[in-house]
Structure formats: C-alpha cells, structure tokens
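debug: dumping io for the single-chain case to check the tokenizer round-trip. Nothing else runs in this session.
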Amino acid sequence: MPEPARKPRDPLRPILGVGTCALLYWVVLNIVVPMGRFFGGEMVAITVPPLVAAAVSGALAMAIFESRGFGDLGIAWREGTGPNFLTGCALGAASAALVILPAVGLGLAHYEVLKNPDIGWRAGLFMPVLLFCGAAGEEIAFRGFVQQYLMRGYGAWSGILGAGALFGAAHYFNPAASALGLLNTALFGIIFGASVLRSRDIWLATGMHFGWNVVLPFLGVELSGLTIRVTEYRLVWKAGNIWSGGDYGPEASVLTSAVLVLLALAVWKVPVRRGWAYLLDGEELLPYVSSPQ
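debug: decoded output
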C-alpha cells in the first residue's frame, strides 16, 4: 500500500516562528534587564536577564507553534545530560587554554600584576555562576527554538548556518567588535549548532560555551569585548592585534581561528550520549543510549 501523501510544509512558517520567538525575547529582555541592573549591577544585567528572556521566549514559541513544552527543545535533564555537559565544558576550557597558554610559552604575551585590582574571593566564586547563566541563555536563545525550527523547516545545515550567522551578528554591538571577531563568533555558533545535531540536546553546546567563557577571564583576557576581572593578573601581549584580538579579546585573533578547526574536529569525534529534541526527532521518545555514539 502506498504511503499517504504528506502535506507540504509552509516555507514561511519557520521564518514566522523564529521572528515571533525573537520578538518575544526582545520584549522580555527589555523588561528584565533594568531589574537585573537595579538589583545586581551591570554584570548581572548582561548575564541573568538573557537566560530569563531565552527561556520565556523559547517556551512560548514552542507552545504557540508546536503545542509542546520547553523541555522538548533538548533541554530536559536526562540520563546522558550530565556527561554531555561535562564533555562540552572540557572542550571549551581546553580550547581557551590552547589559545592563550602556548602564546605565553612562546613569548608572545606575559602576565603583569594589576595595581589595586579590588578583587575579592566572592568574585572568583560568583562570577562562574553568572557566566553559566550567560552561556546557557545564549544557547537556549540561538540553539533552542530558533536553530531547531530552522533545521526542521529548511534542513539541518541550513538551520545550523543560519543560527550561527545570527549568533555572530548579535555580537556586532559588543565593545571593540571587529570583522574577524564576528567571523570567529559565527564559527563558534556553527560548531555549537553542529553539536546539537550530534547530541540532540543543547547541553554539549552549553558546556563548550561555558567552558570557553569561564576560562578566559581567569587567564586575564577580555571576553567578547568585556573586561571581567577575577584575578589580580592580566595578560599583556607583545604581538599585534591579529594575534591578541585587541580589545575584543582572543575571539578576534587568528589563534582562535586555528583552534576552532580543532574544536570542530573534536565535536565530530568526541563520544556523546544521544538525547531527544522534538523538533529534530519527532514524536518518538528516543532514550539516551548507554554507549557513546
């Protein structure tokens, strides 16, 4: 018996869904940011509100367009979530270290002690929490409903490339943003997106994002144009901006471009636990497998 004909998908529906999600994100963000700034200061305002806005907009978009829950975006905690997240953290942290430490060893940069750094132990403990919120918020915003809805509508790599390009463009207004910095940031977004395709959850990507973000400040360099002090040392470069990334930080350097190649290979080869995301896997509830894939 021939299979029944499938109803063709509306080619504009993914754009409508992504546009709606983006509008909801913008509305919620503009409500929550002033609250975060009032209660916690600037660092809280740029990390916690994006997580809140991404969660609310993603949940509403899923409810409006798919009548599904927020956890169906590959966010629900399952058997393999923890290993995927920790694997991502290790990859992100190792990538950051590979950009900075060889440069120090080769004499391209050195550390100097800050004068009156005004840094306490609370900053070292609390800052990773805020950086996790920032990383998780960006991953939910870009690799959650937005990327997955584009993937389902236009194909896996169209969605990954589209969300990666949006991720890079979103950093245009960061301090000291440069062409190479935005390109590398977009490449990060594509690699994070490819990890979602492999793991069927956002936790591998979130781990990589968090691992990268948390290590750079502790190595004394800028993070996407932001200066975050958690130690009394800062890295001083002897090489030019093409190597250091200038005021935008290492993400605008050719060193990061080279390390991104290695990170892409690692994401392709690293063992992961397969999860489940409704927009990618459909109705079938696929359990995490017990062995790496």
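debug: round-trip ok. The CA atoms of residues 18 and 74 lie 17 Å apart.
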